[in-house]
Specification:
The protein is mostly helical. The chain contains 5 helices and no strands. Helix 1 runs antiparallel to helix 2 and helix 1 runs parallel beside helix 3.
């Protein structure tokens, strides 16, 4: 890549990273882009902490807001967990058999 394109890329990542990194914390693409832009760990660490904290707070709030719905789903899956596991294993086996035969 020409040097001016590299400089423009690094400039755009630096401009957007305070929003993108906390919002997409844990995304391999975001970490690859910040690595390509040579973002330091001193700069990434606070963004990571902010992103994880906000995400955990959002999950906690949603769990409290939809507690009855979550409990009904958990009760249903607990009641039928054996059948769900058996069905999942059958689906995986069938897909793998189909892929194995299709590859020949």
């Amino acid at each position: 890549m020409p040097q001016e394109q590299v400089a423009k890329f690094e400039q755009q990542v630096a401009r957007a990273e305070w929003f993108v990194v906390p919002f997409f914390v844990g995304s391999n693409i975001v970490w690859a882009l910040t690595g390509a832009a040579s973002t330091t760990w001193k700069k990434l660490a606070p963004m990571f902490v902010i992103g994880v904290t906000v995400r955990l707070a959002l999950i906690w709030w949603l769990a409290k807001a939809f507690e009855s719905q979550l409990r009904s789903v958990i009760d249903w899956t607990s009641r039928y967990q054996l059948w769900i596991i058996i069905g999942s294993v059958i689906i995986v086996v069938l897909v793998n058999v189909r892929n194995f035969r299709g590859g020949r």
